[in-house]
User: Which sequence fits this backbone?
């Protein structure tokens, strides 16, 4: 029996682990898992609602790491996970994505002699000012099994000297979750209250430090979006990090409707029915690509270039002067339509489990040799 620790810590992790957990449960074979929630995100709106809606079981461990600086959070997660492994080791640590929990648990496992599998390995923005890019680089430097979402990720790993035998091009678990839930999306309560009309409103999400940590930058960006939206309502589900800075702004443009962070089924409902999404998230650009919804990324780089070359996403950048011309093209009906990248087909969780069943991990090799 292979015991796999599945690590989840922050909101974007939850939709990535759900299909893996479900595929292991469905397989009922040689794998058992321990679900480890690091506690990086802890509010119901950032965490618990996702477990409930996506049918993810209660975690076996909650490390209760909570908020803090990058180092405080990393340290708390590392201490918590080390204690778990000291009490009862596992055979494999499976981490997903690029959040602090991903990197912290990968380091702890590897130092304890436990192999690491990284789901969404190999993607790179090239922007080392982003904490996520550091998390990707560090995690992949010590990963043993690389599960990838794109040809570009495979190429980056090969260029970094990773042997082909360790790279598994499996597709995108976040898209498994999207396709599985597409027929059970939920209209948010405020949709009718605010008289929103499908195809006739914009969704924005902003939480990157570069965009939101200086209230004056946030204000300039929101004003530019509001002015170019041509009267369309702009729905802004606000991440806790952004809310703190938003509260310092004197007044928001009238068309901007601030709402709480949305549970998964409500958020995807909003995105699916939007005219367009403006975001600084990476994961959302994958969802808009599959949903065929126009997307503007308010960043200067992306670690998911296939959403631009194949999908509906365009890199608009962080300069607000780029927003009006892009909005004009959108409103004139001139936005590109896109294609879905290979293997983003809803079957990635099952592919990962098939591969996990065949791995010869370090702990087993040690046991066999003893
Ligand atoms: C993290 C991830 C980011 C991801 C984002 C999605 C890292 C480095 N960043 O950023 O990649 O896109 O999550 O949401 O891992 N807070 C709460 N309640 C919570 C969680 C956080 O109020 O449940 C507050 C914290 O007090 C903190 C702020 O939100 O002030 C930021 O949280 P943090 O986990 O540090 O990073 P995120 O910005 O959420």
Assistant:
């Amino acid at each position: 029996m292979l015991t796999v620790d599945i690590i989840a810590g922050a909101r974007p992790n939850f939709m990535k682990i759900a299909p893996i957990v479900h595929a292991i449960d469905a397989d009922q074979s040689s794998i058992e898992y321990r679900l480890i929630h690091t506690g990086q995100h802890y509010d119901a709106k950032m965490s618990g609602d996702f477990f409930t809606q996506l049918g993810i079981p209660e975690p076996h461990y909650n490390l209760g790491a909570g908020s803090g600086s990058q180092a405080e959070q990393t340290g708390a997660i590392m201490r918590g996970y080390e204690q778990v492994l000291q009490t009862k080791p596992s055979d494999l640590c499976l981490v997903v994505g690029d959040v602090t929990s991903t990197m912290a648990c990968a380091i702890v496992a590897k130092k304890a002699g436990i192999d690491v599998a990284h789901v969404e390995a190999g993607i790179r923005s090239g922007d080392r000012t982003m904490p996520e890019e550091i998390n990707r680089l560090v995690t992949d430097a010590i990963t043993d099994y690389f599960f990838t979402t794109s040809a570009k990720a495979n190429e980056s790993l090969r260029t970094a000297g990773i042997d082909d035998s360790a790279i598994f091009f499996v597709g995108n678990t976040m898209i498994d979750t999207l396709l599985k839930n597409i027929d059970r999306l939920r209209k948010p309560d405020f949709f009718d209250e605010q008289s929103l009309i499908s195809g006739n409103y914009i969704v924005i999400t902003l939480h990157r430090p570069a965009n939101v940590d200086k209230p004056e930058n946030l204000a300039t960006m929101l004003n530019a979006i509001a002015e170019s939206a041509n009267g369309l309502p702009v729905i802004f589900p606000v991440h806790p990090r952004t809310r703190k800075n938003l509260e310092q702004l004197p007044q928001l443009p009238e068309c901007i409707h601030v709402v709480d962070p949305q549970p998964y089924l409500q958020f995807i409902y909003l995105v699916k029915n939007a005219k367009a999404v403006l975001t600084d998230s990476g994961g959302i650009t994958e969802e808009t690509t599959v949903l065929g919804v126009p997307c503007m990324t308010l960043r200067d780089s992306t670690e998911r270039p296939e959403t631009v070359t194949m999908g509906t996403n365009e890199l608009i950048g962080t300069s607000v002067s780029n927003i009006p011309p892009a909005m004009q093209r959108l409103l004139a009906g001139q936005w590109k339509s896109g294609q879905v990248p290979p293997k983003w087909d809803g079957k990635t969780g099952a592919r990962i489990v098939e591969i996990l069943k065949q791995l010869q991990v370090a702990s087993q090799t040690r046991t066999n040799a003893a």
Notes: The chain has two domains: 2-172+344-369, 190-331. The chain has a mean pLDDT of 96.
